[in-house]
Amino acid sequence: MTRFSNLERLLQSSETIGIDRASRVVVFSDLHLGDGGRNDEFLRNAQLFETVLRQRYLSGGFSLVLNGDVEELFKFDLDTIQAAWGNLYELFLSFSGNGFFRKLYGNHDHGLLEDDGYCLASSLSESLALRYEEETLLLFHGHQASPFLNEPCTFSSRALFYLLRYFARPFGVRNYSVSYSNRKRYAIERTVYEFSNRYRLISIIGHTHRPLFESMSKLDYLNYRLEELCRSYAPASAEGREAIEIEIVEIRSELESCYRSEFRKSLRSGRYDAIAIPSIFNSGCCIGKRGITAIEIEDGAIRLVFWTRDGSNGRQPGERLNPAEELGKSGIYRVVLNEDQLDYAFSRIRLLA
Ligand SMILES: [Mn+2]
Question: What separation in Å is there between the alpha carbon of 89 and the centre of ligand 1?
């Protein structure tokens, strides 16, 4: 048993679906659906999520992958959750008309395999491989890489499951699912990163609730971009230099706001060695205070996007670099946090891993 054993098992057992440049796929994770009441962490983004799912993705012809921790079974019963979010479940299932719909399970919803009353049972599995030309994108929740959860149903994880369920509910503990230490997140990300490099593939996970694009956290990305801009300054035209100067000012204030507001949460570097190999992506989560994140695959590109109600007026420093675009007249805005061609990402993996 090596530390990749669990991930190798997923790679070998995954169902494979072929995609091409014309395919559209959206990946969400970590909805943590509850009972629709005040201890339901999903509630605040429920309307936003449903509107986005319907107006952008269903009508846009996207296939849908829900990448784990869709239900919060540590705190709520499946029956309660299905009763509260029946419309949403119907919406999920309608995505199979666009191509495919799959629900992968995480650590908060893994008990569902044995439940025959589960309405998404026919779409449920642990992982999914998307075959893009000769390359592989492997989708799984990510808890499989945890050094503490090598067996999905060991006595200790079962015990923890009931303990959390029993204590978390009456006291209305919120967000314990994200009170993950940075050290644990980092250990998981690093294991997935090294596994992906060894097998020359892209992994898309959730679980840590920390969005990652091309193995980089936001902080890494900003530093990386700063480096790029400084390098391109000398050979640039006068006009080009002016644009570079403006962007550098924006990035610097973005970096400062990162240090001010998100110190504990997301400052830890996502880079695991000197060269960032773009082999791990994380779709983030759907229970963020200001909105939800997702990964889109469209026209041969892969994107990390942020959906929020804080549009042109309530803009936070976090979205300063990229313009927010409104979804119709919904009052909901989409910000592309990062984007690249899949061909480029796979070239880097082939050449650098
Ligand atoms: Mn999880």
Answer: 20
